Fold this sequence. Notes:
Helices cover about 50% and strands about 0% of the residues.
Amino acid sequence: xxxxxxxxxxxxxxxxxxxxxIGCDSRSCNRWFHPSCLTGLTQxxxxxxxxxxxxxxxxxxxxxxxxxxxxxxKNVKWGALKGKELLDTITRAYDEIVTWRRNVFKLPTxxxxxxxxxxxxxxxxLFNNDTPSKPISLTLIMIFCPLxxxxxxxxxxxxxxxxxxxxxxxxxEAGDLAGLLRDGRAIQARLLKGKRRHTDxxxxxxxxxxxxxxxxxxxxxxxxxRSGLLEANQKVVDELLMKHPKAEPMHNDVALEGPHFLPxxxxxxxxxxxxxxxxxxxxxxxxxxxxxxxxxxxxxxCSRSFGKETSNLCLAISEFTRKVASENxxxxxxxxxxxxxxxxxxxxxGNHGV
Length: 354
């Protein structure tokens, strides 16, 4: 490593030389660390030919592209990326983006908002139509939203968001994922340096949520502040891994026997665009890996400000739902869709209160 500006993935400070850095050997990870920032690092780890960071240590084989996916993607090109390089780059981007702090702005109206929804619909169609890009389609959906909607600054206005979205959509169309990641990293680095809210800020936010009629959100805010949230750093992750038991191997006596029949596709015909619209309208909840909460998806799927694009997206998601419910799918293709964002809670019991 000879880049003087490469940051430690733990403390964010620059790594000055290879002598004081250790890098993860996972093929989908490009994280480097100060050895002093790593809890539990031993000399054996340093001398070992292979070392994996806390995000990759329990999943060393998951991020290795399968030969089938690489073969399917060999003719898929996005910007300068193609085939295995495309799969590796998108996987690394996803692994990084899902760790970002949630910081998205409301989708602006106008041409930029409609273009955003049109591209989101296209990404769902890549899966629905069994295109060669199907193995990465859901991963693209999960990184598309936070990359496009990163709020540029604390006091940015709607017109600023429109300009940012227009610029980022052009980068996305050109396949300039590196440029989009640089933009997002700069914003995230600024968030990490931001000051914590004072008690008065917490009270103001609680009052504002109550005045807006968002009682559930206000109670959730109070609960989170009382129990406290922990940053998912290596120390916290190691503590959770130590507490969580390893999965037991599967035994034949718990497996289903006999032929397996999929339900008739007609069973899921009532799941149409209107059903998706109504579900989005009545759904509440926090954001998952995409960084978009229920209110955000409600705007995507229910707002009249975007004309036919909301209806087209509802239709695409209904087709996706019916397809997943009625056809066998490769689990690797669905992993971004089935993923969940876990939040470590501080139980106030010293180092063991996670």
